[in-house]
Amino acid sequence: MQKPVNIITQHDLLDLLLQHYQADIGKDFTAYRHHCFRVLNLAFWHSDHSEQSLEKIALACAFHDLAIWVCHNFDYIDPSVALAQQYLQQQGLSDWSADISLLISEHHKVTACGDNKLAEAFRKADWTDVSLGLLNFGLDRALLRTLYQTFPTAGFHWRLVQLSAAHFVKHPLKPLPMFKW
To answer: CA–CA separation, 173 vs 163, rounded Å?
Structure first.
């Protein structure tokens, strides 16, 4: 018998931030929101489960891919970091700047993030979601199925394919600029 799964289905800060950018995200809003909540849960499951980690994960989730829509840029890591930094400064959370920047800047890193456990949890979470659970880093497949039932993909992965293809046509020598080794 599988133990009950605690899935975070709402987070006030994450929802507030996403709602602020809803017009920018447009028709992709539900897809991006669901992606953010899947990553939030996955990263939290890989984290130390502290309230502070959850808040940092939520902030990083909101901003990690946001520049795709806000800045209309598929080379979105640095602009997404800049959006997060602006928010942190406005909210008096500058002491979180280094952590949030690292979570966002390293979330597409192919190899491990070294000693930063929260950045590594976030990296694993995003890779798990983008791979539709093929890369699961030891998480139970039944748990992942429950997460995807709670937050369906809503076309998110197909949208990534479309954005990747459009970027490739314009930049064939740098087709996936967000990846790091």
So the answer is: 16
Global pTM reads: 0.91
> pLDDT-derived band of residue 3, with 50, 70 and 90 as boundaries?
very low
pLDDT at 160: 76
Cα dist from 79 to 24, 85, 111, 168, whole Å = 14, 10, 22, 19
**Is residue 56 packed enough to be buried (19+ CB in 10 Å), middle (13-18) or exposed (0-12)?**
buried
Residue 50 CB-half CA count within 13 A: 7
6, part of any domain:
no
List the CATH number of the domain containing 80: 1.10.3210
C-alpha angle 35-133-157 in degrees, rounded to nearest 5: 45
Q: Residue 144 sits in which domain range? A: 12-170
Instruction: Give bridge partners of residue 180 from the DSSP assignment.
Output: 109
For residue 1, being part of any structural domain is answered with: no
The total number of structural domains in the chain stands at 1
pLDDT digits (tens, 9 = 90+) for 109-165: 888 988 899 999 999 999 999 999 999 999 999 999 999 999 999 988 788 778 777
**Does residue 112 fall inside a structural domain?**
yes
Angle in degrees, CA 163, 166, 172, rounded to 5: 120
